Amino acid sequence: MTARSLRLSRLRRLTPGRGDGAAGRPRRRAATPKVVALGGGQGLSASLAALRRITGDLTAVVTVADDGGSSGRLREELGVLPPGDLRKALAALCGDDEWGQTWARVIQHRFQSRGDLHEHAVGNLLIVALWEQLGDPVQALDLVGRLLGAQGRVLPMSAVPLELQALVKGHDPARPEDVDTVRGQATVALTPGEVLSVQVVPSDPPAVPEAVAAVLDADWVVLGPGSWFSSVIPHLLVPELLDALVDTKARRVLSLNLAPQPGETEGFSPQRHLEVLARHAPKLALDVVLADEAAVPDRESLADAAKRFGAAVELAPVARRDGSPKHDPELLAAAYDRIFRMHGRIGPWR
Questions:
Q1: What pLDDT sits at residue 238?
Q2: CB count in 10 Å sphere of residue 1
Q3: What is the pLDDT of residue 347?
Q4: Going by C-beta distance under 8 Å and a sequence separation of 6 or more, which residues neighbour residue 49?
Q5: In the chain, which stretches have pLDDT less than 50?
Q6: Under 8 Å CB-to-CB from 274, ≥6 apart: which residues?
Q7: pLDDT value of position 345
């Protein structure tokens, strides 16, 4: 048995059984499904803003490969995990009351100056300060969540900051047929070339144990939407986390983007997103693929791609009505709720 298998085995023993409580009594489940959402950036924020409306038991597992902007500067200067995507997830979990919305605005606020504070986000500085005070990233994020009144928990996917590397065809427009290794999430996200594959450095990063335990104990796991190569697929490159996603008894839903992302997935069809996902995680199974009905020109091809994962396709109107390629929290919440009820195992939240 490998060291990774041993660690995962210990986590399974530490995770409460799905139906076993103390002294073998059935464990009472929450009145709503236990949901874990994985991703990063605006895509994960959209999913969390929807999911907090339908479940009281929500955990976000967030990518830690960002190397741009305020996060990149703090990461380089202090050697910490990039806090930006973690901050965005916490803001998305803030309630709609005055307290929640005030704190969401505060932690998202960026300083504008001619000095070193320019473009630093308040939430990034708060998170890093608590990391230094407490010496425990998870404990610090839990404390920030309590301060904000966040309606869920936020966890980093790995305990160390990661570097994203991609093989890109045509990264240099002057050499459109050449394949180059492109380093850094910010660079990968903006490449004018075709991203063929991604990997992380280190190649076998340690997963945060609480993130693995949450996936193993979930009723539903939601992957996406978000930047495909820089926010969604990186979760599949953390071996212990991928093992948990493959082995969990939870149902798994993949939420597709509303439109291809300029640079990273330019020209991608919905089904190509699935094909790329399968190349990076061939053992991963899915139960449902969720897509906006107006963003799927070829429904049959998407259904065929989903079948390779063992998944059904659910089409629903989830985009904002103003025509922008952004998810509407209420519509996305309604789509998730319908999926959980139609495809989920019978549970107390019914």
A1: 97
A2: 7
A3: 47
A4: 92, 329, 332
A5: 8, 10-30, 346-350
A6: 254, 289, 302, 305, 306, 308, 309
A7: 54
